[in-house]
Specification:
By secondary structure, the chain is of the alpha+beta class. It contains four helices and three strands, in the order βββαααα. The chain has a three-stranded antiparallel sheet with strand order 1-2-3, with no helix packed on it. The protein binds zinc ion. Zinc ion binds next to loops.
Length: 113
Amino acid sequence: MAFVCPACQEARVEYLGGTDDAKSRLRCSWCEHEWTHGGEQPAPKSGVLTYEQAKASFAGASSVSPQAAARVDRLKAMFLTDHPRPDPKQRRTGTAISSSSAQRAYRQRRRVT
Ligand SMILES: [Zn+2]
């Protein structure tokens, strides 16, 4: 098992000896930080969430502050005032910039440099 110094993350760790409660005294030979290792260790998390935990971890409307939600509502109303109907060109291509105008912009940029 490779040890890493908790202070500086260096892997240059010296074993200084055992303690009475079966722990190991370790010292970093880089920064000289000393610590004990062993004894009771917290159980590692499994890393697998239950369905309920995963569902609760998703962001939802309740995770947005009331101020931010009010701003989103204002901006959405402004956008829908300016764009009452979807742009048929954007629906067809699926992008805001058509490929021919992107190619034209690329050619212009190459000419400058
Ligand atoms: Zn260290």
